[in-house]
Prior knowledge:
Blueprint: H1 3-16, H2 23-50, E1 54-55, H3 68-84, H4 88-112, E2 116-117, H5 121-142, H6 168-171
Helix pairs in contact: 1-3, 2-3, 2-5, 3-4, 4-5
Amino acid sequence: MSNQTILWGTLIIPWLxxxxxxxxxIRRFMPAGLLAIFMTFIASELxxxxxxxxxxxxxxxxxxxxAFYYGLYPTVPMWILKYTxxxxxxxxxxxxxxxxxxxxxxxxxxASRGIMDFPSRLLGFIFTMIMAFSIYGFQMWQEGVFxxxxxxxxxxxxxxxxxxxLTKNQExxxx
Length: 175
């Protein structure tokens, strides 16, 4: 199998899997997938600028980053969140296994094919775990877990100060 076939497959196949995810779940978890892309771009820029990893082969017209950045990175977190969101320890276990598999097994295989050089595996694992925590926290924020205020209809209970009834202690007071 050629490198171009692998790269095109990592771009297209993950997006095709979303046909099996209900639309409500896609709408619910797509912002987290977009955050994953954004954070991956930042991590890639840091890695390339500091010499932590190098990209040797990409697909046209995506000439700067490998295709799996556009295919795997947004969709895999969506699937993981779909099945683990709300159970943080399960999410942490699945993300740790997923990131370890990707960083310590898949990326060295990709590097052996000449698609990229990835000498800083431990740093890559740390980056992916930071991204996993960030994505989970972002999803909690998206769903309003962090908001402590209750939505109440206060417009009906607003009264001018002069219209408020006096308490019994204030009624009988003489000035």
